[in-house]
Amino acid sequence: MNIYFVNPPFKAEYGKFSRESRSPAITKSGALYYPLWLIYSALYAQKKGHRIAFVDAPAKQMDETETLDVIKNDGHEYGLFVIDTSTPSIVSDAAFAQKLKTQFPHSFVLLVGTHPSACAEETLNLSEAIDAVAIGEYDCIVEELADTLDNNEALNTVRGLCYREGTRLVRTQPMPPMKDLDVIPYAASFIKEHLDVRDYFFAAATYPSIQIFTGRGCPFRCNFCVYPQTMHGHAFRARSAENVVGEFEYIAQHFPNVKEVVIEDDTFTANKKRVRDICQLLIDRGINKRLRWLCNARVDLDFDTMMQMKKAGCRSIIPGIESASQRILDNIHKGTKVEQIRQYVANAKKAGLLIHACYMVGNPGETRETMAQTLKLALELNTDTAQFFPLIPYPGTEAYDWAKQNGYITANYEDYCLPDGTHNTVLETPDLSAQEMVDFCNMARKRYYLRVNYIWHRLKLGLSDFDDLKRSLKAFGRLKHYLLR
Q: Beta 215-216 vs 237-238: how paired, if at all?
């Protein structure tokens, strides 16, 4: 079957909408994530014998008309359209599906992503043009659906679907998570053929970079984290060390201009032995001297593994520190201790690793006092970079259920982004208004980045690493408007 994979447009007039980031928006730093889950599904379908086409409208800032023209001018008939979605854009995504169905009335339209996984029936009710939604990890769902449509078989045999049957909405049996991730071809090979690395930007990475996933599922239970709770589950599954390093080699050979690999796993360091195996292979094959990389890494990472990662070419690690309050960390099931955070930062600095620290306000138990404690800790830790965000609860997460049940969130999905596509704060608690949380994060960002000592640190680092200086200037070029406003 011919399958067209579409990352649809959203607010293209304002910038590049990053749909597959954990908090979808047009970001203040100008970041745009690769649509990796859509890419992996396309790769898997292609490997199984289906002809695929792909368009990433946000990467080129295409509007609806331009995107539909690209699809129409492809010159092939497509029996299945797979449309990526997000919570802030879901109403727009459904409207795009309607336009697509009007243009290709005999096609089957499938919506995928975290939002339809959490709100399947609700999503189908947005438009009769949507034939079905995929629930959860959708590589195998798309491939099974394509085979079924090809053979004109009953939809109820396709696992992981919610679909229309007359006036009824029917859920099929769940699709088991994919166990052998090595069967999916490299995302980098798809990027080489279909995309342009210069269209994508990750503020913590040297530009240009390539993002990949080396595992799925997270064994930890943070109440706000959307992918483990809606798509991939908590059972950690990983590509083999040999497979991961093979993709690094592919990138080094085929992308001479790429400076860094971003490992986007929710927690790359969940299995430390596997991390060390990957590092040893990178060292043995000399890839550590050709490519740098960064990853998300929990604060339980030990010093010896950090040293091995540094030797293997790791430049930076990204921990979710979230809060300086142990009570809040316990409330959100973070599974970490404040003492661990301090040791982690000290070890990372000793190992020569940079840190991009993530802080969040608005979680259960948050007060003005705990927010002040978090900022104090951030300034004390003095990591290379930091981000401050209010909690954004997404459907399908425990944090969303907590907020809805207590009446702390009453916004529509369209309110998850401001009119210009940037993040909006939809949470109001009895102790903190949305505006207070926004104001605090803006103030914390300014306090952090406009310190004389910090600016001097960034200049010294940039003078010793020109690529890092270019990265910083590119991110600051977008962020300065918000810092200096």
A: antiparallel
> From residue 28, how far is each of 10, 34, 54, 445 by CA, in Å?
16, 17, 27, 12
Between CA 89 and CA 66 the distance in angstroms is 18
Distance CA 380, CA 109 (A): 51
Q: Is 0.85 topped by the overall pTM?
A: yes
CA distance 202 to 227: 19
Residue 477 CB neighbour total at 10 angstroms: 11
Q: What is the mean pLDDT of each run of 10 residues along the chain (485 residues)?
A: 98 97 94 98 98 98 98 93 98 98 97 98 98 98 98 97 95 97 98 98 95 98 98 97 98 97 96 98 98 98 98 98 98 98 98 98 98 98 96 98 97 96 96 97 96 87 70 59 57
Instruction: Give φ, ψ of 338 to 5 degrees.
Output: -60, -35
Q: What is the sign, positive or negative, of the torsion defined by CA atoms of 84, 178, 22, 400?
A: positive
Alpha-carbon gap, residue 111 to 146, rounded angstroms: 14
Six-digit token string for 217: 């599922």
Q: Alpha-carbon distance 51 to 53, whole Å?
A: 7
Question: What gap in Å lies between CA 396 and CA 393, rounded to an integer?
Answer: 9
Tell me the C-alpha distance between 79 and 101, whole Å: 11
Beta bridge partners of 2: 51
CA distance 84 to 20: 9
Segments of 362-472 assigned E as strands: 385-390
- In angstroms, the CA 239 to CA 247 distance is 11
Q: What is the pLDDT of residue 397?
A: 98
**Which H or E element spans position 237?**
strand 237-238
Residue whose C-alpha is closest to residue 143's, from 118, 170, 161, 127: 161
